[in-house]
Every structure is written in C-alpha cells, then in structure tokens.
Amino acid sequence: MFISDGITRLIGFAATVYIARLLAVEGFGLISYGVAFISYALLFANPGLTVIGAREVAKAPQDRRFIEETLGLRLMLTIVIFTIFFVGTRFIPGENTTRQIILVYALALFPFAILLEFVFQGREEMQYIGVGRILQSGVYLALLVLFLKGARDILVVPISFVIGYVISTLFLIVIFLKRYGSLRLRFSFSQWRMILTAAIPVGLAIIFNQVTISLPPIVLGIFETSYEVGIFSAGYKIVFMLLIIERVFYYVFFPILSKQHVQNPEKLKGNFNLLTRFLFALTIPLAIGGLILAPRLINLIYGHAFHGAINVFRILLLYFIIVPINTVFGYGLVAIDQERRFFKVISITALLNTVLIVLLGLRFSVYGAATALCISELASIVLMKRELRKFVRFRALGFVFKPLLASLFMAAGLVLLLQWNLIILMLTGVIVYVAILYVIQGFTRYDVANIKQIFAKKSSDRTKK
Questions:
Q1: In this structure, which of 32, 251, 318, 418 has its CB flanked by the most CB atoms within 10 Å?
Q2: For residues 341 and 334, what is the distance between their CA atoms, to the nearest angstrom?
Q3: Contact between residue 112 and residue 42 where contact means Cβ atoms under 8 Å apart
Q4: Confidence of residue 463 (pLDDT cuts 50, 70, 90)
C-alpha cells in the first residue's frame, strides 16, 4: 500500500504537471473546478460505506451476501447522485465546456460504485488494491500523453480519468471472480437501512473533512475566474504530493494505537510523543526549505505562467506542517474509541473552514482561501489535542524547537547557496539539516530503536499471517 500510494501520487503529480503545461492557467483551472465537484460526488455516493464494509469483511471474510448488498446500495446511491448532478449542472454559472467537464467526471461514479477495494482491504490482500490503483493512474497518464495535445482537447482529461477508474474496477472484479467465484448485486432495503445506520456517522466525518480540501476551488471558481482556481490548485497539488507522509503514518500507526489501547494502554503516551517528534522532524524542514525554494520549484514544475502560485504554495506549507499532526491526534481519538469526539471536532472545524474560505476568499482571493485552510486546520489541531489529552497525557509543542533550530541553519545555507543547481541545493539542505539535528540530539538512539522495533513487529505479524 505504501509503495503503490507513492507511485500513484507521483504518476498523478506528473499528470497534473502535464495538464497544467498544455492547458495553461485557465484550462487547468477548469479541470480543477471539475475535480472539486467529482470529489464531492464520490463522497456522497459513498457515505462511509467502504470503511464499514472493510470492517465487516474483516469480521466475516466469507460473508458474500454483505458484500453484494453493499455493492447494490452503492450503485443505487450512485444513480441518485448522478441524477442530481445531471440536473444541477444546468444551473452552474459559466460556459458550456464547464458543464461538460463536470458531467464527464460524474460518469466515474458508476465504476466507483462497484469498486471492490473495501473487500480486499477487509481480507488484508492489499497487493491487489495497490496494483489496481497503479493501473488507474497509469492508464490515466498514458491516455493524457496520447490524446491531450492542447486546450481544444480539454475533455480528454475527464474522459481519461473515467477510463482509469473503469480499468481499475474491472481488474479487481476479475481478481475476485478468480479467487472467490461469482458475484452479483443484491437489492435489500431492510439490509441497506442497517448498513447506512452504521456507515453514516463515519461518512459525515469524512465528508466534513473533505470540505476542507475541495471547497476553495469551487468558491474561487464561482466568485473569481479560472485563473485564480488554476493558481490555487497549482500550489495545493505540490502540498498534496508531500502529504504522502500523512497517509503512510496513518496506515502504519493507526492499528498499533488501536491495539495498544486495549492491550497495553500505558505505552500510548510514549508513542504519541514519538509520533509527534518524528512528524515535526519531517515536516518543518520541508516547509522551511519550500519557503525559500518556492520560486524555483514553481517555475521548474509549472513554468513562468504560474508565477502567481508561489505565495499560495508558501502559505499552504504551514497547512502541510499541521495536517499530519492533526491526523495523528484525530485518528488517535478513533483508536481509543472516541469517534464521537472526533466527529464533534471535525464538524466544528468544517463549519469554521466554510465560513473562512467564503469570507477570506472573497476579500483576498487565492491568498485568503489558502489562509482559511491554515486557520481551520490549526483550530482543529488545538481541539483534537484538547480532547485527546483528556485520555492520554503527552507533550506536543515541546518537540518543535530542535527541528526548527536545525531547519533555520539549513535555511541559512540555502540562502547563501541559492544560485546552485536546484537538485544539488536540496541535497545539501538535507545533509545540513540531518547533521545539525544529530548534533543537537533531535533524535536519540532510543527513539530510533523504537521506530525499528515497531516496523520489525509489523513485519513479524505479517509473516505469521
């Protein structure tokens, strides 16, 4: 899963850069506008069903009826959501091309409805999910390279996106049929009600959280122009790529925290301290290095036309520091059976984020939208930490100082050597940072041993399975 997530994000990032360079800022903004809409559509067509589905499959891997009922429910929800989008696009302001892009993207709802990732996740067969995701992103990029030649081919982007989903879905269906036999859809309203009752609280939390990610392009698209959407999206895409750190930590450590809550709760404090220190040690130097190198990075990746994205990217680097820590605190609450507190915090900060994006976005355009994300995420981390500390007492802010000090030395070196080749400059920055962090004992041998022990334990558990 970690390898596939890294590969798919790299492929997706390459696709983003290719699209941005060929479609320019306005065309890239239209695509980002459409992607924001399909993000919401996918959420409402799957209100926590895959999370609950994976959990129930893990409990009873041979219960094919539940799988078939879940697929039937997802398909029914997809038909409803697609119908709403089909009617709703008639009232969306903008050119006819905008409506066409949104509707083509919405077709991805149908392969997504019967995507079997939750089944393989529940059965702990992650390799098939990984291959499916690489196929999806690989087909998407290949079709873009073959058929996207300029702004007049803009519909190639959403069409390629849909085809990528279709290929991934077909792959997982074929694997399931080969391994487990037949599969069909079941339509049972009584069972659907039970499934939805369990799934909706989780789904609402996911939907509210997704608002933070998808709302800025929509607000900017409605009240500004496609240029502003493109500028914002260009900066955010780089940060999204860096947030692979967040996903890796979630996949690795969430099961560990969940088990320790039951088996060895006294170790939770030490692991929360360790996770916080480790994340600050990774995110702070990346953010400070990004602040200095932002002009060269934006120019290298997108070209001179995206010069306006430089300061957006710089603002969002603060968001990048906060999000992984917030993920640890938030899913830490879930790990200790405090889902309601997690949902409460997500609800408050989602509302705050919505208000701030509209107000600051209208007043300060792309910079206001980026600042709104940072403020709402900062509020979330404060509230999450307050809730978590009611059950687990641990430090957090105290672990900022040493990575920050080492990063400032690194920053001084980057400024002095700013005319060097960018790759050599980044490698030099890494070496300086690691050396200073080692000298000031940002990490001890005991910390490194703990990390090795955690990964060794997971490897041993996987071998036994």
A1: 32
A2: 9
A3: yes
A4: very low
CA atoms of 353 and 367, how far apart (whole Å):
14
**Distance of alpha carbon 313 from alpha carbon 326, whole angstroms:** 20
Q: 269 with 394: CB under 8 angstroms?
A: yes
Q: What is the pTM of this model?
A: 0.69
Q: In the chain, what is the straight-line distance between the N-terminal and C-terminal CA atoms, in Å? A: 17
23/154 Cα distance (integer angstroms): 7
Task: Please answer whether residues 447 and 277 qualify as being in contact, where contact means their C-beta atoms are separated by less than 8 angstroms.
Answer: yes
* DSSP state at residue 182: -
Those residues whose C-beta lies under 8 Å from the C-beta of residue 419, and which sit 6 or more positions away, are: none
Could you give the 3-state DSSP secondary structure of residue 309?
Answer: helix
Least Cα distance to 171 among 107, 114, 110, 109 occurs for 114
- The closest of 436, 373, 404, 435 to 289, measured between CA atoms, is 404
Q: What is the pLDDT of residues 145-154, one digit of tens each?
A: 999 888 888 8
Contact of 219 with 358, CB cutoff 8 Å? yes
CB atoms within 10 A of CB 395: 11
Query: For residues 130 and 79, what is the distance between their CA atoms, to the nearest angstrom?
Result: 27
DSSP assignment of 121-176 equals HHTT-HHHHHHHHHHHHHHHHHHHHHH--SGGGTTHHHHHHHHHHHHHHHHHHHHH
Rounded Cα distance between 26 and 228, Å, is: 8
105 vs 123: which has the higher pLDDT? 105
Maximum Cα interatomic distance, the chain, rounded to a whole number of Å? 68
Please tell me which residue, 182 or 307, carries the higher pLDDT value. 307
